[in-house]
Design a protein that fits this description.
- 25% of the residues lie in helices and 35% in strands.
- The strands form 4 sheets. The chain has a 6-stranded mixed β-sheet, with helices on both faces. It has a 5-stranded antiparallel β-sheet with strand order 13-12-11-14-20, with no helix packed on it. The protein has a 5-stranded antiparallel β-sheet with strand order 15-19-16-17-18, with no helix packed on it.
- The chain is built from 10 helices and 20 strands.
- The chain has 352 residues and is α+β, with helices and mostly antiparallel strands.
Length: 352
């Protein structure tokens, strides 16, 4: 069931086109991530969904009803910001029940709901704690509890992990996803970190300069980015130009890559994405597999990353490849030659 639908949304601020003809839909109980660089318009889009900004044109529909002009407090959407925006003079309980008090709920109902959400976020028994005494992770949980307490129809999270360190962020991401799935609340999660988006989202919408470049599942987004911007923003570095050959395959500076399946018309220019897991190290006597392209290169840099090595090598044709190899691989030193087998199944054709 379609819960939220955005149609042709446009926003102009000081003559700058911030959002350009945004079309997007969200299914019930789905977690959608808006992913993109700072200033791309994703937070503006979130603020328009919750009613804090007004679009210049377009519609926002909730369960089929146009809510574009509805006041924020009548939408019953919950919003959580990066800064958490907790009241420093109130304890955990008073922060959590603030929205319920605004709605004039009965005190017995307020107490019951506060206990439920504090248990949900793992803060049972901490209602009387001063929020200034809490860790960053605990404050994040209080902010989540406060957002969930009024039982919003839609939850909007704007960079909720942005102020936390990496280790705490990774742990809380798992907890947040588990909470959202447990209560089956429809959620939009804004982030500039693709690892966050992949960890939490059912689908990811990549935003660039006010446009949505691609909407897909995390797995599909990783394996087949729509274009160079999406591939680059996801951190991929191996983007090689090629031309479709009439005899099949794509001719590149690395050699002819025999892509399986139908290809565009002969002579068309394409970009080939070679994912970092495509490579394996070949010995001088190793045979190239049927699904591989062998390239010879010179090692430029080697970095140990724990589970693997990141190897940067320049091919004989001048292409720079950045690949990951298992940490039990014996890696040549910088300046030495290396022979790599690149799996075609770990490559993708994308728009130029």
């Amino acid at each position: 069931m379609t819960m939220l639908e955005i149609r042709n949304l446009v926003k102009v601020i000081d003559s700058d086109l911030i959002l350009q003809e945004i079309d997007l839909s969200l299914q019930a109980s789905e977690i959608l991530c808006l992913l993109g660089p700072s200033g791309c318009g994703k937070t503006t889009l979130l603020r328009m969904i919750c009613g804090l900004e007004t679009p210049d044109s377009g519609q926002i529909l909730y369960e089929g009803r146009d809510i574009t002009g509805v006041d924020p407090h009548r939408r019953n959407f919950g919003m959580m910001f990066q800064e958490f925006a907790l009241f420093p003079h109130k304890n955990v309980y008073e922060n959590v029940v603030f929205g319920l008090r605004v709605k004039n709920r009965a005190e017995s109902e307020i107490r019951k709901r506060a206990e439920e959400v504090l248990e949900l976020v793992g803060l049972t028994g901490m209602g009387q704690r001063n929020v200034n005494e809490l860790s960053g992770g605990e404050r994040q949980r209080v902010a989540m509890a406060r957002s969930l307490a009024p039982q919003p129809r839609l939850l909007l999270l704007d960079e909720p992990m942005g102020s936390l360190d990496r280790v705490l962020r990774e742990r809380l991401l798992r907890d947040v996803q588990a909470i959202l799935k447990r209560i089956r609340i429809t959620t939009i999660f804004v982030t500039h970190d693709h690892n966050e988006a992949f960890s939490v989202a059912d689908r990811v919408a990549v935003v660039n300069a006010g446009r949505i470049e691609q909407v897909d599942s995390p797995v599909s987004l990783y394996k087949k980015p729509a274009n160079r911007f999406v591939a680059s923003f996801l951190g991929f570095q191996n983007l090689v130009e090629g031309v479709v050959q009439g005899s099949g395959g794509v001719e590149t500076p690395l050699g002819l890559i025999p892509f399986p399946g139908p290809l565009p018309a002969s002579g068309q220019q394409l970009t080939i994405l070679i994912r970092p897991e495509a490579a394996r190290l070949l010995g001088s006597q190793d045979q190239v597999a049927e699904d591989e392209l062998a390239v010879t290169a010179e090692v430029k840099d080697v970095r140990f990353q724990g589970a693997d090595y990141q190897l940067t090598a320049r091919t004989e044709s001048g292409e720079c490849l950045v690949v990951n190899l298992p940490n039990d691989t014996r890696i040549p030193d910088p300046g030495q030659p290396v022979r790599l087998g690149l799996r075609v199944s770990a490559m993708s054709l994308i728009a130029p």
